[in-house]
Amino acid sequence: MGAAFLVPASSANLGPGFDSFGLALDLHNRFEAELAEDWSVEIAGEGAEELPTDATNNVVVAMARAFEEAGKPELRAAVGCANFIPPGSGLGSSAAAIVGGLLLGESLAEAEFGDERLIELATELEGHPDNIAAALLGAFTVCYGEAGRPRCARFEPARGLAVVAVAAAHGLATSESRRLLPAEVPHKDAAFNAGHAGLLAAAIATGRPELLGPALADRLHQPYRAEAVGDFESVRDILLDAGAAGVALSGAGPTVIGLVAADTDEAAHAVAVRVASRAADEVAALGGRRPPQAMAIDRAGARRL
Prior knowledge:
Blueprint: E1 3-13, E2 17-36, E3 40-45, H1 58-69, E4 76-83, H2 93-108, H3 115-126, H4 130-137, E5 140-146, E6 149-155, E7 161-166, H5 174-178, H6 187-206, H7 212-215, H8 222-225, H9 232-242, E8 246-249, E9 256-261, H10 265-286, E10 293-296, E11 303-304
Parallel strand pairs: 3-4
Antiparallel strand pairs: 1-2, 1-11, 2-4, 2-5, 5-6, 7-9, 7-10, 8-9
């Protein structure tokens, strides 16, 4: 008997929420598996020509870790992936794979880890919990540390929020983007981000669209990562001119996201569609970018199929 899960994309950082904030998006990868004599991986869709199909695949690595956690390290599986999240895009493709692999492994091993332990295991593999939490729990998540362990809180965003994502034609490794970050930042920049992160969380949770623009300002990572995402400011200006309330890098980039707001989720998605349409020609003229894509917020998180 096999198992299958749907896991959403996610946008992390969201400007000032460096390595802390995550927002689940209505774009998904489907992962399925059944026990087998040895590992095998089949991939369809995004990354089919570039992602590994051996034991180094993130889904397999996560499943093996789950089998080990369940006390059944001898288990193996045949894995199938139907991917719609572009790899290396800053939309949480690796987090989705890790969450999917852990859930598959937990299910096939007939174990029950619980969300808190799943986040610990996934963070161990991914290195940071922001995308992990959003992919697993859905909605808007805030991650923090407690006694050296990752902890995450889920919040239901106010109704009426959607995203316009402008992905790049080619991905950017998070490790490469992280090398651009300084080891230390001025105290005034840390204080700036603390204020803006609080403002952003409040704006998302309570539905204050007028605050989204100023709240997305950041001094900890975006100014440095702009070196690797050379058209960030151009894409930001295009999205703002098209009607986005605020704009930020998605994760480490190169995807750029615009947040839009309205009275309901349906109305916000309609606004996002209009913003994407208005921005499409100018984005295409930049070159090296995929067409803007309107996305709703995924409020469910990873779920069994």
